Amino acid sequence: MTPRQKDVYDCIVKFWKKNGHGPSFTEIVEHTESMNSRSNAYRHVRALHALGMIYYVPGRARSARPLDVGVPPLSEPNSKRKPRKKKKSKDEPWNND
User: How does DSSP classify residue 66?
Assistant: First the structure.
């Protein structure tokens, strides 16, 4: 684990113990001195998940939680969503003049 990953991990643990849910990427940036953008925070959260240090569900807000706190992980996001309906295409030209 790199020093920045350690900073992000410590931030997630402290935030989880204080608030009962994971921090947003913006909050990770605000509470970690080594971060300066949300994309960096996202990258480090993904790396921590790959290392097995945290549980994280992509696409779910505030889902980053440390595994050693003893909290069961969130359920996986529903993958049986109905596909979006496509807009009907019009056979008419853009200008109706």
Answer: E
What domains are defined for the chain?
Answer: 3-69 (1.10.10.10)
> pLDDT per residue over 20-78, tens digit each?
888 998 999 998 887 889 899 899 999 998 988 888 887 788 888 888 766 555 554 44
Nearest to 74 by CA among 85, 86, 64: 64
Structural element, H or E, at residue 55: strand 54-55
pTM: predicted TM-score of the whole model, two decimal places: 0.67
Q: Of the candidates 32, 61, 71, 67, which has an alpha carbon nearest to the alpha carbon of residue 49?
A: 67
* Cβ-based neighbours of 59, under 8 Å, separated by 6 or more: 77
